[in-house]
């Protein structure tokens, strides 16, 4: 008997000993107490507008940490009722649940029921080393880690971590992300039935998805509500009311991000500095505050879309009339003609392979000229969003939008605006597509010619011949190139006579920020998008401030502004006034390239500088006859400015005039000092450049 007792004792000792060794081995690759005390999950980085609207989120696992106090009580209660009824009582494991699971599994000779507490689930969610297999080894790891968690944290802290780490399916982790994905709201706004739907997902997010399997999701929600009723978290009236609700609040698709081209621009900017600053934009839960004004962005997208539809309709009409061009672009050997027509009309999804040649594209940017803050950005069609941001990546010929850099060079060399040049044909040497030099005779847009024409009149009417003669007779191409570079143009500008007509490619952002120099009195403000980056705890990692530099004399800047005001008030940009009813002091320039491949308008006020471009990605495809800057592009600018002024309640402030700008009476014919018989007009001059000779005509 003694031998039997002794052997049993040794057996028990052996079991305990080897169990201890086994548990010790299991625990070696489990998280230490130190790791538990420094819980640091991957979090979503959020990009905010200047008015603190969430524009976009960056993440590997979509998780936004939310404090327990911001999670509704009924959400917490639903989690406890559904996942761990004795959460407040146990010390990491529930012996009652363990016993019940053992009985069920033994009787069934299979693993049918688990016994995980909420703390054990948290352990598995936090630490991948535990594993996810349904076996006894994983359970032991869970138990060991759960006990450590219970020793380290309070029950509320455990519940907070649990609700911030659980997977709800569709790429979401944590109750905040789940609430956003399924209901388009924050966790704090969840209703009782919405909380039950979310918690109902936890056992199997794939099977209980309210999007894919609404009937299963509804049944599971009702089960959660029943469990809450059993625990007296809700009363019978609440329970009955909730049962009558469907899944009306569930959204099928996630809410789209705002300003997608802008946020992609921000993301790329962040990637350039993340190593330098020691953060990971996809894991560290940063708050990135930007310069974008969500109100102006909304206006920009609305106005761009209106013109996109109009310009696309014009392109369609042209192509539909030209069977040869249409059949060539439409790949009718591959796609039926009728199908392509439907696609172009917007009645069917346009195949990706056809978009480059058949879609009118656009770029729009608005900037604060005083600081360089990017206030709005559209990098392509809102209805066919892609990764190619034409606002900052597309290099296109600017056409007449480049002419202000030519005129600026002349003004900065003290040529007065009354300087006269002959509005007659000229010959240019240009390189063709093969790199060969050939003769080219540019013409004015309206095919006109004339006699002596002032700089003011030449820019007002956008006369190509005057611009070319400026380069040939007064300001060499290399000086114009230097002016453009000084004002912020970063692309390669060819110092040839054709520079006068904007034949070298530019990037929209560069051109628009360069026009900001005129608006700000000669100060170039480097465009920027990010103002501040904070870590998950609200500590500022880095701040960004305006970078400003004087690149042009205030007098030259004002003279150019005044010339460009003439364009808007009485020139090619005049429809901004008489048609689109924008009356604030403004200046700007239209631009159209040869063959109507590009249509531009860039303009500014003392408060805003904005520009718009339209074209087709395939440069060889024309927008169509007469689809010029004033027709295709200007409407977006004018409508945007009109609404922006209303929304921001901007005052109709005029541009500040330097003291050494003088108003002088001149003869309207000779542009000299008038005599008594001369017709007189007023003109402005930089002091010292006003006419010194008397009129010899009258």
Give a quick rundown of the structure.
The protein has 698 residues and is of the alpha+beta class.
Describe the structure.
- The structure is a single chain.
- The chain is α+β, with helices and mostly antiparallel strands and 698 residues long.
- Among the domains are: 61-243, Biosynthetic peptidoglycan transglycosylase-like (Penicillin binding protein transpeptidase fold, Orthogonal Bundle); 659-698, no CATH class.
- The chain has 24 helices and 21 strands.
- The strands form seven sheets. The chain has a five-stranded mixed sheet with strand order 2-1-6-14-15, with helices on one face.
- Helix 9 crosses helix 10 and helix 17 (403-412) crosses helix 19 (464-474).
Mean pLDDT across all residues, rounded? 87
> What is the number of helical segments per DSSP (H or I, 4+ residues)?
24
Q: Into which percent range does the helicity of residues fall?
A: 40-55%
Structural class of the secondary structure composition?
alpha+beta
State the main characteristics:
698 residues; alpha+beta; Penicillin binding protein transpeptidase fold; five-stranded mixed sheet; 21 strands; elongated
Set down the secondary structure blueprint.
Layout: H1 2-28, H2 33-37, E1 45-48, E2 54-58, E3 62-63, H3 73-83, H4 95-108, H5 118-126, H6 136-152, H7 155-165, E4 167-169, E5 172-173, H8 175-183, H9 192-200, H10 214-230, H11 236-243, H12 260-277, E6 287-290, H13 294-321, H14 323-329, H15 337-344, H16 352-358, E7 360-367, E8 374-378, H17 403-412, E9 420-422, E10 428-431, E11 437-440, E12 452-454, H18 455-460, H19 464-474, H20 477-486, H21 508-519, E13 523-525, E14 530-534, E15 540-543, E16 548-550, H22 554-570, H23 575-578, E17 587-592, E18 598-604, E19 609-616, H24 629-648, E20 661-667, E21 680-686
Parallel strand pairs: 1-6, 3-5
Antiparallel strand pairs: 1-2, 4-5, 6-14, 7-8, 7-19, 9-12, 10-11, 13-16, 14-15, 17-18, 18-19, 20-21
Helix pairs in contact: 3-9, 3-10, 5-6, 5-7, 9-10, 10-11, 13-24, 17-19, 17-20, 17-22
